[in-house]
Amino acid sequence: MSFMAPGQVVWFEIGTREAGTAEKFYGDLLGWSFEDDLDSSVDGRRYIRIMASGAQWPMGAISEDGSGGEQINVSVFSADVSADVDRLREAGATVLVPATQVADVTWFAILADPQGNPFSLFSRTSNESLKDRAQATEEQFEQASYAPTPGSFAWFEIGTTNADATREFYGQAFGWRFELDETAGGKPYYNVFTGNQWPSGGMYDHGGEGADYLMPSFLTGDVAAQSKEAENLGAVIEFGPDGNPDGLVYSRIIDPNGNRFGLFSMPTQS
């Protein structure tokens, strides 16, 4: 299956009233760099691409809107944003931003799942002059998914107080498959398969307690040190650092603007 097939999570967005705070926090914490996307900066809204250190292509964006609120979401590739908005509304999603075209670049929409977690849909342009660029970006996205660099978007996580409803919605919405993670030491954690043979996200079943969320997670070499640094920069450690028996370490953090994200490090290879 193509990495940019419908249902794949390949992007994230930070919505904010003032981009400078987010740029400073994540730049200092994870070494991100930023550049304005002039094609997508319309109607007084700045759209700022995010690059991890050493990466060849952006992995997400900051969307600055002085009249908006604070929000972070993951983005799911769609073959037809308008049709998917209608279909997902029928499945129980709430439409926060309807299907919208941005110049000649893309279509997008923002919805919330039945638990209230925002996510976005996007489709790449059909503009003939941009097809070669779209193909190149797909290849770069796929390469980054196989060998993510430190600071890169390499996982997403759903926290849910209603695991059955969450599985039903995302299974119906995008064909996602959920399998209990046997390496999690008995924790109610499920790997999420979005169409490929490897998982690209996870679901934590809070069993009726805790927060509902859908967040991006970023790869780091030292979760404890990076979590402490996030705290020094004004964030709040919501959970962790914690780990699995196989050596994976993770934490869940609220940034200074109130947006939730995760940090994780992979098990050490013996």
Automatic annotation (TrEMBL):
CDD domains in UniProt: SgaA_N_like
Gene3D superfamilies cross-referenced by the UniProt entry: 2,3-Dihydroxybiphenyl 1,2-Dioxygenase, domain 1
Glyoxalase-like domain mapped to chain residues: 16-122
Transmembrane segment boundaries: none
Sequence ranges assigned to domain Glyoxalase/fosfomycin resistance/dioxygenase in this UniProt record: 153-261
Record protein name field: VOC family protein
UniProt-listed Pfam families: Glyoxalase, Glyoxalase_6
Matches recorded under InterPro entries: Anthracycline_SecMetBiosynth, Glyas_Bleomycin-R_OHBP_Dase, Glyas_Fos-R_dOase_dom, Glyoxalase_6
Source organism of the structure: Saxibacter everestensis
SUPFAM superfamilies in the cross-refs: Glyoxalase/Bleomycin resistance protein/Dihydroxybiphenyl dioxygenase
